[in-house]
Amino acid sequence: MNAIAIIVSYLLGSVSFSILFAKWLRKIDIREHGSGNAGATNTLRVLGKGPAIAVFLLDIAKGVVGTLIGLWLGDGNDWVTVACGLAAIGGHNWPVFFRFKGGKGIATTIGALIVWAFLPALIAGIVAILVIVFTRYVSLGSMVFAVLLPIVLLFFNWEAAYLWGTIVVAVLAVYRHRKNIVKLLNGTENKLGSGKKGEPHGA
What we know:
The structure is a single chain. It contains ten helices and no strands. With 203 residues, the protein is mostly helical. The longest helix is centred in the first third of the chain and has 25 residues, at 49-73.
């Protein structure tokens, strides 16, 4: 049952709403427009606010549901719950239904963290939002959120499974934003609302 839970969570994560909305609304592959990323921020750039909000919420829901599947089928085992959350995030990043080219997993990570550790996620999320508000760099805020998670969990002495899960999340987030890091260092990263092509994020 544990293996089934992980596989189902991955398949759920592989449903890329950004790609689907772009196909339904504009008959395009969103990965060929804007930043080329299949996530909420690029959906905002290419399709507008309404679809972007829908994609963001649905991507969060994937993380919530995938993690709850692990909690249910794993009979409350923390490691299975974490594995299913990571599987949902992995599905979003590398979706089997869309040639393994997806988003960067931040919204789906938020969903998983709602179940894993709501309070630490809330604290890290508030800091990340402040970073985005003051810098207008969604990519920077996303990485701050991910990297802060294990630090906050460690401070609260959270269960080991969730701590290790957030460490994996932090590594994945930094890896998926590696191009953004280069742009941030070069001063060429696009800011939220700039309307220019680039790769600011894409949860």
